[in-house]
Amino acid sequence: EVGEIMTPRVVAIGAQDRLLTVEDIMTLGRLRHLPVVRSGQLVGVISESDLLRASPSCLELQDVDERRNFLNSIEVWQAMSSPPIVIDAKASLFRAADLMLKREIGCLPVTDDSGEMRGMLSREDVLASMSGRG
Known about the structure:
With 134 residues, this protein is an alpha/beta fold. It has 6 helices and 6 strands; from the N terminus they run αβαββααβαββα. A 3-stranded mixed beta sheet has the order 1-2-3. A 3-stranded mixed beta sheet has the order 4-5-6. A hairpin with a 5-residue loop joins strand 5 (107-111) and strand 6. The two termini are 12 Å apart.
């Protein structure tokens, strides 16, 4: 089951927070995805890919401070993927892998029967489990 291999303690980011905060958390925590919440409710997911898409190219902004100022001007909700694609903690790993492949996503927020988020499942979690290292 998904609930057995998910990451249970998850750092979430607010929809009104800034992309600069996302970049800092991802860098420091070595994370590739963050759930996005508004008033305690899951409203999306922001990934490294979303962050890169929202960032200006190296050619547009040469200066590191200029780039950081730009990222600080954009709120998370403007770049996140929404609505989030979620999976139930009781679902099979096969179902999770199939959903990730079909939707071309690298993680799934994991919910319980009441719809509350209980953790995150990454593509790496699924692969490690299937290879016997999870």
